[in-house]
Design a protein that fits this description.
Structural class: alpha/beta
Strand content: 5-15%
Shape: globular
Strand order of the largest sheet: 1-2-3-4-5-6-7-8
Radius of gyration: 19 Å
Order of helices and strands: HEHEHEHEHEHEHEHEH
Number of strands: 8
Oligomer: single chain
Number of helices: 9
Length: about 325
């Protein structure tokens, strides 16, 4: 790991010269936490929906020299064949990239009408025992095929999978990532999700820098954040804030999403051209962010490639026999 350097604020010297100095950063705002390898940030390419999109991401990341710690998929384990999952596990393993697949049924694809109302109903939660069981089935199938990171959008599913991990029914090295579509928006909820079993937590991309500092005062669980968010998550582009996002939110996964791009969930061949083009552009967006960090002297502190574990986190006790 390269030691983090003191970053240059965007436009600071030019603005100071004409009487508009940047406010000084408060050292008390900085996160005191890091990944167990000492790194402050890692990278993630989201919405990599199958082997073909994965091949595009890996090829493009080599061409543009974009380091990738993790790729994630949004359509779900149930939308992939065993052969597709096995191929993705193998390809990621050869490059030391973590593969994260989404678990099972969610409310937005269910027959319940609540999610289609203005209130959004129960959102992505798993409705009923059968949907919960479907998520468990996805987790067992994926981990049986070698997947070691699962994306979860429901607190009950998260707690259930954590209990299965504690009991040994899921591999102990399995990690659980909380979806951006249900991410916590205050420090208390962030801490609760950590104790329910989350190993990294997506937070909405509209959280302020102060919100990140508030979260870091109560939890060291890794945070996932879109530097550029897809339109259904707001379409925010926060590239110039990346250094400060790291300073406030570490340990942090920088997610390179894509605004102004059609949705591709659940993915199928009818969306192939869009999925491959957007996968390629997500890697390019990552290059833009890394170049910006380098120009400002803020590109130090990246975790070594191949790093994936979150370190020791706080958990609610799991009752024996339950």
């Amino acid at each position: 790991m390269t030691a983090p350097s003191l970053p240059r604020r965007p436009g600071a010297d030019a603005l100071a010269a004409i009487g508009h100095p940047a406010p000084a950063a408060d050292p008390a705002d900085a996160s005191p936490h890091s990944f167990p390898d000492g790194g402050l940030w890692r990278t993630e390419i989201p919405s990599v929906e199958g082997p073909e999109a994965l091949a595009v991401v890996l090829d493009e990341s080599t061409r543009l020299a974009v380091p990738v710690h993790r790729i994630s998929q949004g359509s779900g384990v149930w939308m992939l064949t065993d052969a597709e999952i096995t191929g993705m596990v193998q390809a990621c393993g050869e490059r030391g990239v973590e593969l994260c697949l989404f678990t099972g049924p969610r409310g937005t694809w269910d027959i319940g009408a609540g999610t289609r109302t203005d209130s959004g109903g129960a959102g992505l939660r798993a409705r009923g025992h059968d949907a919960l069981a479907g998520c468990v089935e996805d987790a067992l199938r994926a981990t049986g095929l070698g997947v070691r990171c699962l994306l979860v959008a429901d607190e009950g599913v998260l707690w259930t999978l954590h209990r299965l991990r504690v009991s040994g029914r899921l591999p102990a090295a399995t990690t659980f990532k909380l979806s951006a579509l249900t991410g916590p928006v205050n420090p208390a909820s962030y801490a609760v999700y950590e104790q329910l079993g989350a190993d990294s937590l997506n937070v909405p991309s509209d959280l302020t820098l102060d919100h990140l500092t508030e979260i870091r005062r109560v939890s060291r669980a890794p945070m996932d954040m879109y530097v550029e968010a897809p339109d259904d998550l707001g379409g925010y582009i926060r590239m110039y804030e990346t250094a400060e996002l790291i300073r406030r939110g570490a340990p942090l996964y920088l997610k390179f999403g894509l605004s102004r791009s059609p949705g591709i969930y659940p993915y199928g061949a009818q969306l192939r051209d869009t999925a491959l083009a957007s996968a390629r552009e997500r890697v390019r967006r990552g290059r833009l962010v890394l170049d910006l960090l380098a120009r400002h002297g803020a590109d130090g502190g990246m975790s070594p490639l191949g790093s994936r574990l979150p370190g020791e986190l706080r958990r609610f006790p799991v009752p024996e026999g339950h």
